[in-house]
Amino acid sequence: MQELDAIFYILILLMSVVIHEVAHGFAAEKLGDPTARIAGRLTLNPIKHLDPIGSVLIPLLLVISNTGFIFGWAKPVPYNPNNLRDKKWGTVFVASAGVLANLTLAVIFSVVIRVLSISGIFSSSFVAVLGAVVLVNLVLFIFNLIPIPPLDGSKILFALLPAKYRNIEIFMERYALPILILFIVFLWKYVSPLLLWLFATLTGF
To answer: Is 29 labeled as catalytic in the residue annotation?
Structure first.
């Protein structure tokens, strides 16, 4: 059963991160950069975005080990910030597109859950599937807003910071991996209540 749960969550995660990445590409194209389309990455075909480590191995290990933390990534959709019509705000909008896509998915599936609950057309197993979609996308939404490279939150922060704080960006990029690991191990537990509150607020469960 645990293996089936792992596969189930990984499939949900895979499609969610694919939508996340495609949203980056569409935002970049709307703002003047066609790199993602030229590379053939503006597609929901997961094979085009699959990262063996981030899309399969890491999520599988996290689910099986019962860490309570579900995360993964797809291959980043390429884009050239130099092509953006507005490099500062364009970077912010492109970085924001992925997390907004995940939040939108969470809201849409939460609405479906509430409608099913109100209408009485209620299947606990089906609602569990919808709830898993909401939960995974809320994790992606919150986690990607953390301002640690290479997460979207860091791109938003560094685009908005004045140039005199460039040394902060250099430091964060240099030590990004250990900082990110430390955050997950020691600080994510303090973010979890926000995740659960959002889930309960959106779904009513």
So the answer is: no
